[in-house]
Amino acid sequence: MFNSAQKRAPPQLLVTPRYRTTQSEYNNPNSERLFEKAKENSFNQLKVLQQIGYGKFSKVMLAMLNGEKFALKIINKGCTIKTQTQQHLQREIQIMKQLNHPNIVKLFKEFSDEKNVYLLLEYCNQGSLFNQKFDQTQIKQIIKEVLLALKYLHSQGIMHRDIKPENIYLHNNHVKLGDFGIAQYIKKQSKSFCGTLDYMAPEVINQNFYDNRIDIWSVGILTYELSNLEPPIKDRDQKLQMRRIISEEVQYPRHFDQKLKNFISKCLKKRSDERATIDELLNDEYIHS
């Protein structure tokens, strides 16, 4: 039903790019020795097979434990110190430890050594949504499961802040929302300029206080991009793109039917208090058509 895909880069600081860097800054020649030492206190039977992904300051390895596959994310401590993102990593781990939902990537174990932090994560056998093509039946199911993941996440008092194809994975044809590197607790007021520009809500760009309704905006952009293979507002000039996101209404391609356009429009209201709720979107005729 779905095909595997290559992922793009995770966040650097609070603003995330749309494309993978050509190489990772992760560089630790002693990583194998340190890892063997660290896992002695965690999983002696864990076997690392091959690299399956990488980010600016991390790499992801395919690992086996008791016959089961896992994704082992290895994060360089020095890079997080250099970029002052240690707090984001600590919060990511804290958030993932409290989450338990079938549509969210599960964190099974976290351990560390002098150089690295290791996250033993649920392995997703079909990769991320990025660079994959889907028909509308598939897209509706994907969006439904993203909404279910967000409904649970918001019920736990957390907003994701970086919903996009790169951060949504597929396993056995079901969605797994991952990459909580810039997720934040809703109770803490925020107006940080963060996320991925293509997916940023107007209130984030304006650096106004915002809440979990920024995730609803991102669902609208996601639905559009999955249906058209590119986001609705894109510009080489980032400042111009920001102005356009704030002021322009989305234009729809001819192949979008009315139910699809209505669904996206309910997400992409410039005023956050006018956006549809998750329950309203789950009950929308587009999802059920």
From TrEMBL:
What InterPro entries does the annotation carry? Aur-like, Kinase-like_dom_sf, Prot_kinase_dom, Protein_kinase_ATP_BS, Ser/Thr_kinase_AS
Nucleotide-binding recorded as keyword: yes
Q: Determine if Isomerase is one of this entry's keywords.
A: no
Q: Any idea which GO molecular function terms this record carries?
A: ATP binding; protein serine/threonine kinase activity
- Domain Protein kinase residue range list: 46-287
Tell me which domain of life the UniProt entry assigns to the organism this sequence originates from: Eukaryota
A GO cellular component annotation in the UniProt record: chromosome passenger complex
- Residues of the active site are D162 (proton acceptor)
The GO biological-process annotations, alphabetized, read as: mitotic spindle organization; regulation of cytokinesis
- Which keywords does UniProt give here? ATP-binding, Kinase, Nucleotide-binding, Serine/threonine-protein kinase, Transferase
PROSITE patterns in UniProt: PROTEIN_KINASE_ATP, PROTEIN_KINASE_DOM, PROTEIN_KINASE_ST
Locate the residues binding ATP: K56, K73, E166, N167, D179
Q: Where are the transmembrane segments?
A: none
Pfam families given for it? Pkinase
Cross-link Glycyl lysine isopeptide (Lys-Gly) (interchain with G-Cter in SUMO2) placement = K164
The family database entries (SUPFAM superfamilies) matched by this protein are listed as: Protein kinase-like (PK-like)
Q: How does it assemble?
A: Monomer.
Regarding protein family, the annotation reads:
Belongs to the protein kinase superfamily.
Protein name, entry field: Protein kinase domain-containing protein
